[in-house]
């Protein structure tokens, strides 16, 4: 009798206690909710409170991205840097102020979007412990709408007209032969490369350059192909005056 009791007790400790899931009825080890992991996953949404839509601003001129607080950063599409920027706009991934634990981000990947769609998509996978020892994992998509904006630097450049050096080519004659010849040479040698804009006048042309170096190279080219006299003017915005150095 004693031995039987002992063997009975041994039987109990060796056979795991199972209960039936209160939803689907499969045998499981008991837990606080008495529910199996798959039923728990379908009834609890661990992504609740995480935003799945956000807006990103990109400068239409220099293609940099707005980080917030007037700061812009340059990064390639589908880059690590752009991913971390995207993640910084997802709310609900940090622990709440009331001590509520946010789900843990375990994976983030890009979903391809058409480059001109003005949309970026990422897939995030998060984990969270919902019952003692039961860790749920869920994947979901976050979509970003890309809006065009002009960054402060490009705005400033636009206000200044963008150019720093201006080459004015003039010839006071009745015909246009020299300029037609010059135009062909410029196009043939690509000498206008780096030029922001060109304006034509009755007696000549204006070439706008973003810096002195490109303008100097263009003058050098002109000196090599046509007889010219060069006159330099230094224009200062602070004194609003121009001075000729020749
Ligand atoms: Zn179940
Ligand atoms: Zn810009």
How would you briefly describe this protein structure?
The protein is α+β, with helices and mostly antiparallel strands and 246 residues long. The chain is built from six helices and 13 strands. The strands form five sheets. A four-stranded mixed sheet has the order 3-8-7-6, with helices on one face. A three-stranded antiparallel sheet has the order 9-11-10.
Describe this structure in words.
The structure is a single chain. The protein is rod-shaped, with a radius of gyration of 35 Å. The chain is built from six helices and 13 strands. It folds into two domains: 109 residues, no CATH class; 85 residues. The longest helix has 14 residues. By secondary structure, the chain is of the alpha+beta class. The structure holds zinc ion (2 copies). One zinc ion binds next to α4. The site of one zinc ion has 8 residues, from α2.
List keywords for this structure.
single chain, 246 residues, alpha+beta, 2 domains, four-stranded mixed β-sheet, three-stranded antiparallel β-sheet, rod-shaped, disordered C terminus, binds zinc ion
């Amino acid at each position: 009798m004693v031995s039987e009791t002992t063997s009975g007790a041994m039987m109990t400790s060796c056979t795991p206690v199972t209960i039936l899931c209160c939803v689907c009825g499969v045998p499981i080890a008991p837990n606080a909710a008495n529910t199996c992991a798959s039923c728990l996953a379908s009834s609890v949404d661990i992504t609740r409170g995480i935003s799945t839509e956000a807006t990103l601003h990109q400068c239409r001129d220099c293609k940099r991205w707005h980080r917030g607080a007037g700061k812009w950063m340059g990064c390639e599409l589908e880059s690590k840097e752009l991913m971390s920027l995207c993640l910084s706009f997802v709310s609900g991934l940090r622990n709440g102020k009331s001590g509520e634990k946010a789900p843990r981000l375990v994976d983030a990947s890009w979903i391809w979007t058409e480059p001109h769609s003005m949309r970026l998509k990422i897939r995030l996978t998060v984990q969270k412990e919902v019952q003692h020892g039961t860790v749920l994992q869920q994947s979901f998509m976050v979509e970003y709408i890309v809006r065009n904006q002009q960054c402060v630097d490009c705005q400033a450049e636009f206000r200044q007209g963008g150019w720093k050096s201006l080459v004015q080519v003039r010839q006071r004659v009745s015909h246009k032969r020299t300029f037609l010849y010059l135009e062909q040479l410029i196009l043939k040698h690509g000498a206008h490369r780096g030029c922001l804009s060109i304006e034509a006048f009755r007696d000549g042309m204006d070439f706008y350059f973003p810096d002195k170096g490109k303008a100097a190279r263009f003058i050098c080219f002109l000196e090599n192909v046509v007889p010219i006299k060069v006159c330099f003017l230094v224009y200062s915005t602070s004194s609003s005056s121009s001075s000729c150095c020749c």
